[in-house]
Structure formats: structure tokens, C-alpha cells
Amino acid sequence: MCLKPDSTGRPGVALIIPALNEEPVLATTLEAVPRSLFDRIVVADNGSRDHTAEIAAEGGATVVQEPERGYGAACLRALASLPAETAIVVFMQADLSEDPGEAGRLLGPIFEGRADLVIGSRTLGRPDPGALLPHQRFGNWLAIGLIRLLYGHRYTDLGPFRAIRADALRRLAMRDRNYGWTIEMQVRALEEGLRVLEVPVSYRRRAAGENKVSGNPAASLRAGAKIIWTVWKLWLRGRIAARRENR
Ligand SMILES: Nc1nc2c(ncn2[C@@H]2O[C@H](COP(=O)(O)OP(=O)(O)OP(=O)(O)O)[C@@H](O)[C@H]2O)c(=O)[nH]1
Ligand SMILES: [Mg+2]
Q1: Sign of the CA dihedral 19, 230, 91, 138?
Q2: Torsion angle of alpha carbons 25, 41, 191, 222, nearest 10°?
Q3: Cys-Cys crosslink for 11: which of 3, 115, 119, 242, Cβ 3.0 to 4.6 Å?
């Protein structure tokens, strides 16, 4: 299966950055993006009350607005805005926790035809001390363990920095509108039999701006519960569908 080329003859690559009140850091993040890798950068402004949208536009990104709060809602809105010739989509945070310069590591295995989904694993790639908080590590461990138990696949992380072929992403029929987005993609990828690869990426604390999830205990608890629930829900849904087919 070959990747659909854009007008320049290479596969169209889009970078999606969901952003909620990221004014203090977004300009630096966009400056660090290796432009030659991407045909389009989309910032999904998730109802920010600051100048996130203006900064994104000044930084050369296409801005889409998603007033409904939630990481997944922002990603879905950005995806809906992509041109048909987009062949690969990369997702990255706005807060410079990830190194945009490492995007090539995620894209390489897809360009080479070795993978459909490439997860940037923070645990494989030595995160900065304190960048992954203990409750984040615990939540990751729990979710990864559950996937291993139910699906028999060993992931090492649920990191949000990732690349996926656009045709594969469409097959996943993503629905989650908030914290379950990353795990839904990983579980659905297994259900659909995608070729999944993990590559090490670096990780540090957000460079600036408000801690909204990992640095916020209440939000972390909500995110953790949603992540675990999402794995169970998808597994049960798969079992019910399999039973119906066998009848
Ligand atoms: N939390 C949150 N982030 C959103 C939302 N919409 C878009 N985002 C963006 O999604 C990315 C991930 O959210 P973060 O707040 O960085 O989540 P985190 O990395 O777990 O935690 P912190 O870095 O401590 O805030 C960032 O780029 C956010 O700006 C939303 O509704 N809630
Ligand atoms: Mg963050």
C-alpha cells in the first residue's frame, strides 16, 4: 500500500497541536518545529481565553477553533480540517514537553513502510527527572498492564507525541473527546491489526504555562479513571461484536 503523494510528489504530512491557553509557550514550540517535514501545521484552539490563536497564526499555523473542551475534541476538529491528500498525521503537545525536532523519528518508520502507527515512548527515551510524575507513571503502568492482559500487546507508554498514516487513522473511527484519546488510538490500532511501533522520545516538564492535567491532582484522577474505563469499554465492545458475529 503506497502513501498518497501531494502536489510536490511526496506524502502530505500534517502536524496537529491541540492547544488550550498556551500563550506563554506556543511561539517557542512552533519555532522549534522542523518545517521541512510538514506540509501543514494545525493548531486546534480549544476555547483559549488568551492569545493562543493569534500566536498560532503568527507562527505560520492554520488555526481551527473547537469550543468544546477536551483533547480528543480538539484533535477531531483538526483532523476534519485536513486536506484529502494528507497521508500522515503527527500529534504533539503545545507545551514543549516534547522535542519537535524529534518528529523525524516518528515519521521514519512510516516513510519506510515499516509501521502504520508510531508512538513516541517517553519511558524508552529517558525522560528528564521529574518530567513524568509518580502518579503518571502509575497510571501508565496500570493502563499498559490492562492492555497487555486483554489484548496481549506490550506498550511501554501512552505518550501523546505520535505519528499515524491517515488511512489507518480513518479505520480507527476515533470517537473519544477528551482524556481517552491516546489510549483509544492504541487499543483500536490493535483491534484493527495495525503495525504499531514505539520509538524513544525525550520528555521534559512543560516549558511554561498552566499545568492542566499531570500537574493538577483532580484532573489527573479524572484522566486516569477515563483511561482505564476506555480500555474496558473497548474490550467489552469488541467481545460483544465478536459474539454477534459468531451467532
Ligand atoms: N488539559 C487540556 N489540554 C488541552 C485541551 N485541549 C487542548 N489541550 C492541549 O493538549 C495538550 C496536552 O495537555 P496538557 O495540559 O499539556 O496535559 P499534560 O501534559 O498531561 O499536563 P500538563 O503539561 O501538566 O498541563 C496541550 O497542548 C494542551 O494545550 C483540554 O481541553 N484540556
Ligand atoms: Mg503537557
Answers
A1: positive
A2: 30
A3: 3
- Domain locations along the chain: 12-131+154-209
The pLDDT-based confidence of 1 (bands split at 50, 70, 90) is very low
Contacts with 176 (C-beta within 8 Å, 6 or more apart), sequence order: 72, 184, 230
Which pLDDT does position 5 carry in this prediction?
56
Report helix, strand or coil for 177. coil
The 10s digit of each residue's pLDDT in 229-242 is 999 999 999 999 99
For a mutational test of ligand 1's pocket, the pick from 95, 201, 210, 214, i.e. the residue with the most ligand atoms closer than 8 A to its C-beta, is 95
- For the beta carbon of residue 232, count every other beta carbon within 10 angstroms: 11
Which atom of ligand 1 lies closest to the CA of 209? 25
Q: Is the pLDDT of residue 88 over 50?
A: yes
Which of 47, 54, 51 is CA-nearest to residue 71?
Answer: 47
Domain 12-131+154-209 bears CATH identifier 3.90.550.10: yes
- The radius of gyration of the chain from alpha carbons, rounded to an integer in Å, stands at 17
Question: In the numeric block, which cell numbers belong to residue 122?
Answer: 517517553
* Distance in Å, CA 92 to ligand 2 centroid: 9
* Mean pLDDT value of segment 34-39: 97
pLDDT level of residue 157 (50, 70, 90 thresholds) = very high
pLDDT at position 246, please? Answer: 86
Tell me the average pLDDT across 26-35. Answer: 98
The answer to whether 37 and 100 are in contact (CB under 8 A) is no
